[in-house]
Amino acid sequence: MHDSRPAPPAEGGPLLSVEDLRVALPGPGGAAVEVVRGVSFRVPEGGFHALVGESGCGKSVTAAALTRLPPASGPGARIGGRAILRGRDLLAMPPRALRAARGAGGVAYVFQDPMTALDPVLSVGTQMREAIPRGTPRAERERAVRGLLAEVGLPDPDRLLGAYPCELSGGMAQRVCIAMAMAQRPALLVADEPTTALDVLMQRRALDLLRDLCRARGAAVLLITHNLALVSEYASTMSVLYAGRVVEDGPVADVLSRPAHPYTAALLRAVPRLEGTSVEDLAVIPGRVPPPREWSRGGCVFAPRCGRARAECRSSDPALRPVSPGRAVACGVR
Questions:
Q1: Which of 160, 177, 274, 310 has a Cα at 20 to 30 A from 17?
Q2: Is 72 part of any domain?
Q3: 2: in domain
């Protein structure tokens, strides 16, 4: 069977290096609650890196914090750490420089639901033209808009540019969002659950499109998802998040074939199998992700849900440490 997953990149400096990223948001009563707790990972130049984990583990807040988007920039929010993009720390930039970094040669986003990402009262053409860099002459801007629609496989640009989001299918709306994100040729495209509102066939098409566009333009992708099937097919490296921390990191082929953390192994067991005959055959992870206010109470946060937990797991929270070249895990149970 042909493996369409990108090969791991050659040795060299990463495009994006996230180091000890921390985000605290106001909690009940106004007290700060840390929802991203020392997250570190690297996105290789031209690579496809995935952030994986259940809902509520901090994936989307991590992505928003890279360029200080809400909720990471809301009232009372605090951000620490570094996010180095081609030698420049995004988190240390003044507001004007950071706005410029959200786009041309910097970071662009494709969000979860295209129907909510697009403004329902503005036409597709109006929104796409706004995505073209300021100062672009009108004729050149129109050519760029039509060229982007052609790149994402959307025909009949005159009709589409006059349409409103409610007139588009989910797949068409997602392609428009991808086109808008690529309009300023970013170095890094953050795709935050980009297939959530799509059926299985359209999920594949959307990821194929992202991969092909980024390969053609030399951009890297940070894919945020809980879908391990998509990760195995499209990503080359991955980080597994649980309770606001990276618990395992490494090449996709290694992590998925030999998971070192019990949480990663549990996620893999929960993937539906063709040999299953009913819903009772599905493996589940007992319990739920605890709320962020419980994440720093001591001990491994996953211990209450872990079948391999020992007494020491409930008193100490292991740091992420290397276990082999390119692999790291935060677990003391081996």
A1: 177
A2: yes
A3: no
Q: What is the DSSP letter of 6?
A: P
Task: Record the tokens describing residue 106, joined without a space.
Answer: 């910097």
Distance, CA of 99 to CA of 109 (rounded, Å): 13
Name the residue among 157, 231, 216 with its Cα closest to residue 182: 216
pLDDT computed for residue 2 by the predictor = 39
Q: What is the pLDDT of residue 1?
A: 36
Could you report the per-residue pLDDT of 85-95, keeping only the tens digit for each?
Answer: 999 999 999 99
Does a structural domain hold residue 238? yes
Q: Which two tokens stand for residue 200?
A: 């299985």
Let me know: does 166 contact 190? Beta carbons within 8 Å. Answer: no
Pairing status of strand 78-85 against strand 88-89: antiparallel
Total structural domains within the chain: 1
**pLDDT of res. 13:** 67
Enumerate the β-bridge partners of residue 249: 239, 328
Question: What band does 6 get if pLDDT is binned at 50, 70 and 90?
Answer: very low
Find the CATH number of the domain harbouring 78: 3.40.50.300
